[in-house]
Design a protein that fits this description.
42% of the residues lie in helices and 17% in strands. The chain contains 12 helices and 12 strands. Pfam families: LacI, Peripla_BP_3.
């Protein structure tokens, strides 16, 4: 059933039906009620592509993430889509898997689909790709990496606060020999977490034993493989801080394979607080980066950009992090201190 049948049943013109379904305020409530009654009666579904051609608006927002297999991102996507759908937008998703070629294809696809705004929730985007989007005056929001500018929002995660809480927590438990397993070297968020850890362990109370810094990949396998390096270190650490929860979960599995267990043999801390962190054995102590807050701020920033309410340099939104203490950390045994 098409729009003409809706118009016939409602006793109005096709133009009135179009104005009603597009939310034009000039349609009276009484006429709108008749039109919507006819719409529901015939099961009419508006052609969104045709509406976009007429209105010049796609009602689509782009969302770019990195690794879709990392549970952090589906939780973020779910929140962003929730806010978008409530406001009448669809979401075009792009997952780059840290591949510059896929990122370039994703940006091109979003431009072709005429997205009205793009949330870049990953940090491996090239400046030239940013320019392709900003040059078309598409509102953008970035996490940690975006340039200041009109219709550009920047979300800045306060990694330092959560990392400091975690380091202080381990110190209070008697740990003095720490290790850190990082993420991909070209990932800005991983660099910021590592830098925060290094700063926090540069305090005078840590001068007696410098932390062991290991490279990682933010994947389960990276954490699993790092266990051998932790156990074979000249001075074995008593606690390890991981750059994300997947790495920490890999460490827990690696310890199990070696007949060891957290926190008895090694206290383990993650970062992100993904949903499954509460259900590992033992439950994972981790730094919470609230995905729903991140999704909300990203969406609201794009809406502000669409309304052109963002002033140059003013679109900086902080996201706080905090430590969640669970069972994977414990007081260090006297013999290991």
């Amino acid at each position: 059933m098409g729009i003409r049948e809706v118009a016939r049943r409602a006793g109005v013109s096709v133009a009135t039906v179009s104005r009603t379904v597009n939310g034009v305020r000039s349609v009276s409530p009484a006429i709108a009620a008749k039109v919507w009654s006819a719409v529901h009666a015939v099961g009419y579904v508006p052609n969104t592509q045709a509406r976009a051609l007429v209105s010049g608006r796609s009602r689509i927002l782009g969302l770019i993430v990195s690794d879709i297999t990392n549970p952090f991102y589906p939780e973020l996507i779910q929140g962003f889509e929730q806010f978008a759908v409530q406001a009448g937008y669809d979401v075009l998703l792009g997952a780059t898997n840290y591949d510059p070629a896929i990122m370039a294809t994703t940006v091109r696809r979003m431009i072709e689909r005429k997205v009205e705004g793009v949330a870049v929730m990953t940090s491996e985007i090239e400046p030239s790709l940013m320019e392709q989007l900003t040059g078309r005056r598409i509102p953008l929001v970035f996490v940690d990496i975006g340039p200041p500018g009109l219709r550009i929002g920047n979300i800045q995660v306060n990694y330092e606060a959560g990392v400091r809480q975690a380091v202080q927590h381990l110190y209070r438990l008697g740990h003095r020999r720490l290790a850190f397993i990082g993420g991909p070297s070209d990932l800005k968020s991983a660099q910021l977490r590592r830098d925060a850890f290094v700063r926090c362990t540069s305090a005078p109370e840590w001068m007696a034993a410098r932390p062991l810094l290991l490279a990682g990949d933010h994947k389960l396998e990276g954490g699993f493989e790092a266990v051998q390096r932790l156990l074979s270190a000249p001075v074995r650490p008593t606690a390890v801080f991981c750059s994300n929860d997947l790495t920490a979960m890999g460490v827990l599995r690696g310890l199990d394979v070696e007949g060891l267990r957290a926190p008895r043999d090694l206290s383990v801390v993650g970062f992100d607080d993904i949903h499954m962190a509460e259900y590992t054995i033992p439950p994972l102590t981790t730094v919470r980066l609230p995905r729903l807050d991140l999704a909300r701020q990203a969406f609201q920033s794009l809406m502000a950009g669409l309304e052109e309410t963002s002033a140059p340099g003013s679109g900086l939104t902080p996201i706080e992090t905090s430590l969640i203490v669970r069972g994977s950390t414990a007081r260090v045994e006297p013999a290991a201190s």
